[in-house]
TrEMBL record:
Family under the similarity heading: Belongs to the sigma-70 factor family. ECF subfamily.
The protein's name: RNA polymerase sigma factor
GO molecular function, one term: DNA binding
Domain RNA polymerase sigma factor 70 region 4 type: start-end pairs: 121-173
SUPFAM superfamilies registered for this protein in UniProt: Sigma2 domain of RNA polymerase sigma factors, Sigma3 and sigma4 domains of RNA polymerase sigma factors
Domain of life: Bacteria
Keywords: DNA-binding, Sigma factor, Transcription, Transcription regulation
Domain RNA polymerase sigma-70 region, residue spans: 24-91
PANTHER family attached to this UniProt entry: RNA POLYMERASE ECF-TYPE SIGMA FACTO, RNA POLYMERASE SIGMA FACTOR HI_1459-RELATED
């Protein structure tokens, strides 16, 4: 059945056919799980969130619009929201203080993209301390390598606000690394 196009696959799932659901999971579960597992430290919880993502997708397949996003991106949008809800229930709210220090994009990129192993470790520790939504944004942009248009769809954040939020998050990382 793996020869189905994305459109055929969606239609098979809409018809409630089990083989369509099985095919969707086999095609996309690994990618969805990887995105969730970068945010959720407990692998059992990540697996459960992955299952919840597909259950929600199956029950809401009629809301999928192929003109807005690919099936993979739509599934990641569902996973994003479920994961943020999960993280908000489990983590205390952290209020960030804004810093008005001006840092150019070039300075940020140079500082955050260094390949030294100890710097990468330090960067990962700082990322883990970020609020859930900022961590998810960095995951989608850097680890998932998704374009801003897809991230806009997944998060529901307007493009200009998304670019601004990404800049502020990178700036926060820069400040924390240089303290």
């Amino acid at each position: 059945m793996s020869a189905l196009t994305e459109t055929e696959l969606v239609e098979t799932v809409r018809q409630g056919r089990r083989e369509g659901q099985t095919e969707m999971v086999s095609r996309y579960a690994e990618r969805v799980f990887a995105m969730i597992a970068r945010q959720v430290s407990d692998m059992m919880d990540a697996q459960e969130l992955t299952q919840d993502t597909f259950l929600r997708a199956f029950s809401h397949i009629d809301s999928y619009d192929p003109h807005k996003a690919s099936l993979s991106t739509w599934l990641c949008r569902i996973a994003y929201r479920l994961t943020l809800d999960y993280l908000r229930r489990r983590r205390p709210v952290i209020v960030a203080m804004e810093d008005n220090t001006d840092i150019s994009d070039e300075e940020l990129e140079a500082e955050l993209s260094t390949g030294r192993e100890e710097r990468i470790e330090q960067l990962m520790e700082v990322i883990d301390e970020l609020p859930d939504d900022e961590r998810m944004l960095l995951t989608l942009y850097y680890f998932e390598d998704r374009p801003l248009t897809e991230i806009t769809y997944i998060t529901g954040i307007e493009p200009a606000a998304l670019a601004n939020r990404l800049y502020r998050t990178r700036k926060k990382l820069y400040r924390k690394l240089n303290n």
